[in-house]
Amino acid sequence: MQGKVIVVTGALGALGKVVAETARARGARVAGIDYTPSQAPATPERIEIGGVDLSDAAQAKTAIEAAAKHFGKLDALINIAGGFAFETVGDGDTATWQRMHALNVLTALNTSRAALPYLAASKAGRIVNIGAMGALQAGSGMGPYAASKAGVHRLTEALANEWKGKVTINAVLPSIIDTSANRADMPKADFSKWVTPQELAEVILFLASDAASGVTGALIPVGGRV
After folding, report:
1. In this structure, what are the phi and psi dihedrals at residue 48, rounded to the nearest 5 degrees?
2. Can you list the positions of beta strands (E) in 80-191?
3. Are the C-beta atoms of 208 and 78 separated by less than 8 Å?
4. Are 222 and 203 in contact (CB under 8 A)?
5. Is pLDDT at 226 greater than 80 in this prediction?
6. Considering the entire predicted model, what is its pTM?
7. Distances, alpha carbon 117 to alpha carbons 47, 83, 113, 122, 206, in Å
8. Which domain of life does the protein's organism represent (predicted)?
9. pLDDT tens per residue across span 94-113
10. Residue 9 main-chain phi, psi, to 5 deg
11. Of 60, 49, 35, residue with least CA distance to 111
């Protein structure tokens, strides 16, 4: 990671914070983009761009351009921004499906489109998306979320083929992530079976590294203890 410039979306969330902190600890310079406003001062090693709705293509483009201007280049984009909703198909609302599509698919699409010209100019351009193991076979109540994450899977595969030889594009597919929010929602679960943010960060940053130059179009499940 030494000397790399990495953009992390959803950088103020439970997973995004760990990925950004781990990348910086390994010598990367990090641009964090998030919907939550941020007042953190920019430094030569980091910049936080808050208050950005990445489901809006124009806002995503502006944020990516700001990151590229600050650092002078981009080497990797890690698309963590997203959302979750549990709702059955029969009792649910179409608006939930639209919201999941916007939060999970459009955020990744818009940032990828904006970043790809910069990443292609890097000698080792990388995109890592966050899919979901739950999108491989959707259970009851998982329809809107699983459908949107399946869209992320197909987006990953399509972009990997379109940009083969220029940028590697992969996705990690977590099981349940061990966060305080998930523990509060599922207090009776066996947390030891969940994947930790740090475990995910290790796989994500491997895919963003020079060592993963031969991997593209892969959908990698992480957290098979469930």
Report:
1. -110, 125
2. 125-130, 167-174
3. yes
4. yes
5. no
6. 0.96
7. 20, 27, 8, 9, 22
8. Bacteria
9. 999 999 999 999 999 999 99
10. -90, 155
11. 60
